[in-house]
Write a structure and sequence with these properties.
This protein is mainly alpha-helical and 106 residues long. It has one domain. Strands 1-2 form a two-stranded antiparallel ribbon. The chain is globular and about 40 Å long. The relative contact order is 0.18. The mean pLDDT is 88.
Length: 106
């Protein structure tokens, strides 16, 4: 968990601490559930520690995103666009790698 925690702290220090979906301020203390992978870690393991694949969300929006219920949130369309862009980049990146390099990635 060390690499992920370090990445989360770096993101917390460098980004605006607001939910990308509703704009709610997230406070001053980072919490693990504020960090949301746009592309799931299970389906896209090589982007697990890619900072471009992690956005900040409040707990209610994170839950809604995970259940597919965020259509009415103001940031939903932008997040869907980001997800599609990341998917294309993910497949481009992983197609360029040999099997041995994929094992070492992230």
């Amino acid at each position: 968990m060390g690499k992920q925690k370090d990445l989360f702290l770096k993101i917390w220090k460098t980004r605006e601490r607001v939910c990308v979906l509703c704009g709610q301020h997230l406070g001053i203390e980072p919490r693990a559930h504020y960090f949301s992978h746009v592309l799931s870690k299970g389906a896209y393991p090589y982007y697990k520690l890619n900072p471009d694949n992690i956005v900040l969300k409040c707990i209610p929006c994170h839950t809604l995103w995970e259940t597919g219920s965020t259509e009415k949130k103001k940031g939903h369309r932008e997040l869907i666009k980001l997800k599609e862009k990341l998917k294309r980049k993910y497949y481009e990146d992983t197609n360029k790698l040999s099997s041995s390099k994929k094992d070492k990635l992230f």
